[in-house]
Write a structure and sequence with these properties.
The protein is α/β, with parallel strands linked by helices. It has a single domain, classed as 4-Layer Sandwich (Metallo-beta-lactamase, Chain A). It is built from seven helices and 15 strands. The strands form three sheets. The chain has a seven-stranded mixed β-sheet. A six-stranded mixed β-sheet has the order 5-4-3-2-1-15, covered by helices on one side. Helix 5 packs parallel to helix 6.
Length: 277
C-alpha cells in the first residue's frame, strides 16, 4: 500500500458503521479525496481525487433501493467511466442510457461488448475491449484490471421489433481492481461465489477497499463473504448486493458477526449514503 495512505486508512479504521449505531464516518482528509456514494444494490458512484466520476454496476431506474430522486439519471450528474461486472440486469440495466447520455467510456466483460454493439445498444466507440487479467487506462491516471469472478453472465434482452425476450452472450463475469490517480485501490468484486484465488488477488493487487457481495443464494452469503475478506485482507470492506429483494437475505450485521475480530474495518453504506476518504 502507498505510504501516504497509511495514516489516512489508519484513522479511518477506527470507524465501523453498524446498523443502529450512531458512529460517524471518518472525517475527510485534507487535499484531494475519494468519495463513494451508494445508490442501492451494487450501484456505487465514485468520485476520484482528480474529479472523475466512475459508476459501478448501474441499476437505478427500476431499483427498489435507489432513492427516488436518483431514479432520474439527470440527477446523478455526468459520468466519465462505467464499469459493468456482468450482464445481469441488476448490474447493467442503466449502463446503455448512461453511456449515451454522457458519452461515457463503458467497460464490460469480454464478449458482452460484442453483444451490446451488434444489437445496437451501446456504440462500439464507447467500449474499449479488455479481458480477464488485462489492465487498461481508460482515463488519465486511472487503471482498471479485470479479475475473475465466479458467477454467470447471460444477457436477457427484449427485442423491440418482436417484443419477445432473447438470451444473448454476456461474456464471463469479472471483478475490477480500480487504481485511482493517487494510488488508492478499490476492488469491486461484482457478483461472485467464494473461490481460492481470492487470496491470490489480495496478495497481487493489495486493494485498500473491497466492495463485497453478501446476500447469499446467488452470491456469497455473509459467512463466505467474511472468509473472502480474510483471504483478501483489505483495510476497509463495504458490503453490497443485499436486502434489495426478499431472495437476497444476507445482512450486514451477519457479515460483521461472521468476520469477528479482524484488522479489516467494515463500513456500511445505506442507499444514498456518501463516504469520503
Amino acid at each position: 500500500m502507498n505510504t501516504k495512505f497509511r495514516k489516512l486508512l489508519g484513522a479511518a479504521a477506527v470507524f465501523t458503521l453498524l446498523a443502529g449505531c450512531s458512529t460517524q464516518p471518518p472525517a475527510p482528509s485534507a487535499g484531494p479525496q475519494v468519495q463513494l456514494w451508494s445508490l442501492g444494490h451494487s450501484a456505487i458512484h465514485i468520485t476520484t481525487p482528480g474529479g472523475k466520476v466512475i459508476m459501478l454496476d448501474p441499476w437505478l431506474t427500476t431499483n427498489p433501493k435507489t432513492p427516488a430522486e436518483y431514479k432520474d439519471l439527470d440527477k446523478i450528474g455526468k459520468i466519465d467511466l462505467i464499469l459493468v461486472s456482468h450482464a445481469h440486469f441488476d448490474h447493467s440495466a442503466d449502463a446503455p442510457a448512461m453511456a449515451k447520455k454522457w458519452n461515457a467510456t463503458t467497460i464490460v466483460p469480454q464478449g458482452f461488448e460484442l453483444t451490446l454493439h451488434s444489437l445496437g445498444i451501446i456504440p462500439v466507440a464507447l467500449m474499449p475491449r479488455m479481458g480477464k487479467g488485462g489492465t487498461i487506462t481508460p482515463l488519465p491516471g486511472i487503471k482498471v484490471t479485470a479479475v475473475h469472478a465466479d458467477h454467470a453472465s447471460e444477457f436477457n434482452w427484449t427485442n423491440p421489433a418482436t417484443g419477445k425476450q432473447e438470451i444473448h452472450v454476456g461474456g464471463e463475469p469479472v471483478g475490477y481492481i480500480i487504481e485511482l490517480e493517487n494510488g488508492f485501490k478499490i476492488y469491486h468484486m461484482g457478483d461472485t461465489a467464494l473461490f481460492g484465488d481470492l487470496k491470490l488477488i489480495g496478495e497481487r493487487y493489495q486493494p485498500d477497499l473491497i466492495l463485497v457481495p453478501i446476500a447469499g443464494r446467488y452470491v456469497m452469503d455473509p459467512v463466505d463473504a467474511a472468509e473472502a475478506t480474510r483471504m483478501i485482507r483489505p483495510k476497509i470492506a463495504i458490503p453490497v448486493h443485499y436486502g434489495t429483494r426478499p431472495d437476497l437475505p444476507g445482512t450486514a450485521e451477519e457479515y460483521v458477526a461472521a468476520l469477528g475480530s479482524s484488522p479489516t474495518k467494515v463500513m456500511i453504506l445505506k442507499p444514498g449514503d456518501k463516504l469520503k476518504f
